[in-house]
Design a protein that fits this description.
The structure is a homotetramer of 356-residue chains. By secondary structure, chain A is α/β, with parallel strands linked by helices. Helices cover 26% and strands 21% of the residues of chain A. In chain A, the strands form 3 sheets. In chain A, strands 3-2-1-4-5-6 form a 6-stranded parallel β-sheet, with helices on both faces. In chain A, β12 (281-283), α11 and β13 (309-317) form a beta-alpha-beta unit. In chain A, α6 packs parallel to α9. The longest helix of chain A is centred in the last third of the chain and has 13 residues, at 335-347. Chain A is globular and about 60 Å long. Chains in contact: A-B, A-C, A-D, B-C, B-D, C-D. Chains B and D meet through α8 of B and α7 of D.
């Protein structure tokens, strides 16, 4: 235990913050040393503000939530923070942390489109980490993970890029309640209903997907030329975002090639990252999968539960490839994404202990 | 009452059959004279097998369900039948009825693609009624209404055809539980879940839409050259099918032209059909509509509740027009569709009393 | 229209406030002249803040919500107000209205236990109106309706009082989401869940039931000696509170007597009140009724939809009478209750126009 | 592995049958050697008929379901069967198995009230095992577990018996969808609804609770003199039966005595049974627990997840003790109950290998 890297969870009282706590409670590399939140939760125990269906991790349930300034965290020797800060708050606070020498792995949207900040899905665009440039003394790094609805999509696209040469990607989402955090969607708004609108979601999905699938050129990301067109809707499921995807493709591969491409995709296979699922994409052959209820916790080994993306109902009538894709919005598309990003950065040689 | 046309409802014990009963209970032109179903429901009162949330119509609640052969119906002087028969049963039974001189307005899929049978949505392809040819003595006519997921789509497309010159229509559906009838979807299969598969639904949606939007040539329907591409999924709403639509268009009209086209569309305006909604398409300007819970009962006047199709979230970034469309699957996409078809046929001069 | 009594709805932006608007929009006796709410909704149209599944009444959808002081209402000539004010706010504001000569019919809890304020369910304790004493010049009257979970219970008990001589009433509730107003219960808190706690609900149910079933003595209500024991829980239904009731009785009537008592109960039969349901209690004989989905809108005539209380599953094994009772929490247990109270007060000779 | 006792699961294709498979897949003492079901599932793999949200156990997912006669099982050397057979089928088939020398631990209702068959909850009435009498050569034993709604109730009552001296127990249930098996409740019957009726459930709850809490006298169970009075209702939760309990008591213990009695109750503490939860009753102090979503999987150690019964909202106003109790209907109230019964019988010296 002595050599686990101490870290802070910021925005710990929210839904994603609690998933961070769940994932980091017994993490082999990172050890939670601080839980930060705003005044509303200040002074409360993690168990008192817990809202997930699963019980709070026993290691952390008596952990007290505090308001932490970057300076205080720094004084405590913390050089690594996971951010589930709300949009708006995240922009300045994350920048301040970085200036204090604290590396931030963030689920917040604020810095995702900053040219020098990697918007990272390690299996898809691990090379974007190069945007960080060389380590700078006394300064942390900032790495973001994408919006929950973009994550599953880009993962499912990654093995298809060369094979299909996609021109247009049409996607319609069936997003879960937890995507809106807690308290989030009022029950009267969604019981026996679908809400075909999520603030700014279509824009995020489209522009973030383009950036993640883009190429590095001269230390910049050139967005993918693929045209993304999204419909985002909320349905009454608890967790797991399902998406109906139609890809208009230039190439004409065979169906079995497509399946093989998905099934053999595992660019992180040899890195030994604790939270990386192997394989990262599971392909279901049943006629009616993936389903949020049954597939949201896909991912092996046990630590990577909820980290696999599940693809199914593959129908290929050129030029249109159609399929459904599912991923757990709060794990693969939230807290787990940033935990994996931190593991990946570490494996790529970044020092997250501030020892540099 | 004396001059209302007597009619039978076949398949009266099912979900669509009950909507037929609801709509026909106090209809100004038609009067229910027989409720038919299979042996399972034989002898029971309508109120005993009632499954809709609304109470059974008082006019019919004590009406007894029987097994009716075409010959018996004919002997009773019935020349008009509404069919909510299950697929499989419908094919032969509907044909037998027609041969007995009974006109059938059917929600069943079996005859929808028959070259000489109109697949009718009066606002969209009223002229397809001409497929019936001239009246034939002693023989009824057979008119079908489309699948519940195709109905809203073609209605929303109809006013766009000349304006947009659509090439491809991508649609992803959020279909309600009642689309599967009763008992239909087990609660354990759908609570906290989405099921991205409905047997044969994508095929029906695609081929029926093409036929309805097709043109008459030499007493045949030439299917529309538009390419339809569908994803169909079941969500946990009770009634109302929501659809996310993306149209790839050749033309480049202005946004206001599009809205005006939808809002002013009302080809049945002057026919005085009791169940026709005016307007048939309602356009919502709020950022988050249409919603199944709030918009499924759209339609004026009162008798046409659930008959209007609701369009919203219109976004036009050429060449892609995106919007959501909603219609009540069991009314506009089911029983109400066939009732309207019968009213329309009557207005177009067809004799449904067998008097010919 | 000229002789409808002008009235204000206070707390109009909330769930009960909207039900008031729905019920009063085309009321034969009352005419909405003002919609009041707090700053958050000030200046907005009723249609803009509308949250019910039903569309807003066309008569009022363009009506603008304002902040109204008692003095302003008074200057406008308003002498009647329906209150859906939140607890806390209601206490002082309702008192101020009364002092200004405005009569208040309130759904708020604040004054329900005041000795001189009737807590009224006209079919049950109409005589409690006498608590008001004689009319006082320049002063309005204040009449409250009970908590939504108490209403159905006391209505179902009323015809049983002499017959059963109840000693103890055990009740367990299955309360709907709308009982908590809007936004109310977060969807993540209740989807796939039951919450066995509603703040202060058991206390209200017990003490209000005792007061309503109490007797007038010396211008005071002496609470019923019945012991009430409640469990209150929230379930994921939209509207309609279901309750499982067990009455420990002293008397031993026959079952048919009990049924007859419920079915023939109609103390308001001759008063001609527009919102009074006839009969006020409907008894269902099916083995599985009442159900929130199917029975919440019980009540005839049309204007009284949602005002009837539905009783079913009657089992009488002395000394325990068991049954289920359902009533619409926002109608019979909310807005409709106060509308009926106003109609009843008017019929009993109270002047609600301030003309006195 | 070599010394795990081979066992059969009968009725393996149903919801409880699948929970048996889940619990026995890697059981330390028992090894699944046969999965039996009717012709409908014959020949299919376990994974093909799987309906639980959790994935099928990898150890058994390729296991093939067959129709097994008692003779065939016997020939295969199987001396232990877990029964999730449907009522009706169970009576004769379980008797036949016993005659063949196969011991049966059954969740079926058919034999629960047989005078010589233990209806067993080991923590509550372990001594009822004595009903079996001495082992009989060539004959298996038959032990049943109670109805899912009775289990949580009797567990919560057990530590209260001497302390409270209960006279009457009133209970109202909030039962989950899985209590009805698969396909079970149609989604249209329960979405936005509560159904206040479950066939024969109140009767089972009442009579089984009386038997379990009864005393052995002369090799017979004399039912408890407590009067049980139940209301059973179905709500739209997936798993976990919640119950509102009111106990009318003769004694007047202090509140802290009651809590201590619940918290220290653990009669199986020293037996080392793999599926026994320690403690068997968890007491929650929060104001709004237990909840099905958050508490159904209570139970430690990991193997005993879903086996603990959770009590909360304890209110003691003599003579009425009120509380809520929750237990997982398919685990503690189903498959887990019989697995625990088998472990208990083994610990009490019964030979389940047929070696006797």
């Amino acid at each position: 235990m002595t050599d686990r890297i101490p870290c802070a969870i910021l925005g710990a009282s929210g839904y994603i913050g609690q998933h961070f706590a769940r994932l980091l409670a017994d993490h082999p590399t990172f050890a939670v040393a601080a839980l930060g939140a705003t005044e509303r939760s200040e002074g409360r125990l993690l168990e008192e503000i817990w809202q997930l269906a699963e019980p709070p991790p026993s290691e952390l349930e008596k952990f007290r939530i505090r308001r932490w300034s970057p300076a205080e965290l720094s004084r405590r020797g913390i050089r690594l923070a996971f951010s589930a800060l709300p949009s708006g708050t995240a922009r300045d606070l994350e920048s301040a942390l970085v200036r204090r020498g604290i590396s931030v792995f963030s689920n917040a949207a604020d810095h995702r489109m900053d040219p020098s900040v990697p918007l990272l899905v390690p299996e898809v665009n691990g090379e974007h980490l190069a945007l960080l440039g060389p380590p700078r003394r006394g300064r942390g790094i900032l790495v973001t993970n994408p919006n929950c609805s973009a994550t599953g999509l880009v993962l499912s696209m990654a093995p298809m890029m060369d094979l299909l040469r996609p021109k247009v990607v049409h996607v319609a989402t069936y997003q879960s309640l937890s995507g809106a955090g807690y308290p989030g969607v009022p029950s009267l708004a969604i019981t026996d209903n679908v809400v075909p609108f999520i603030q700014e979601e279509e824009e995020k999905l489209e522009r973030e997907s383009g950036r993640i699938l883009g190429r590095l050129r001269d230390h910049r990301v050139v967005a993918s030329p693929i045209s993304f067109s999204a419909h985002c809707a909320r349905v009454a499921t608890r967790e797991g975002h399902l998406e109906a995807v139609t890809v208009e493709a230039e190439a004409r591969p065979g169906v079995s090639e497509l399946r093989t491409a998905w099934r053999t995709f595992d660019p992180l296979a040899r890195l030994g990252l604790p939270t990386a699922p192997h394989p990262p994409i599971e392909v279901r052959d049943e006629p009616d999968r993936p389903q949020p209820l049954r597939d949201r916790w896909a991912g092996r080994p046990t630590r990577a539960r909820g980290m696999a993306t599940v693809v199914g109902r593959i129908r290929w009538v050129p030029p249109f490839l159609r399929f459904f894709v599912l991923s757990h919005n709060a794990v693969r598309g939230g807290a787990g994404a940033s935990v994996l990003n931190a593991e990946y950065a570490l494996a790529r040689g970044w020092d997250l202990t501030g020892g540099a």
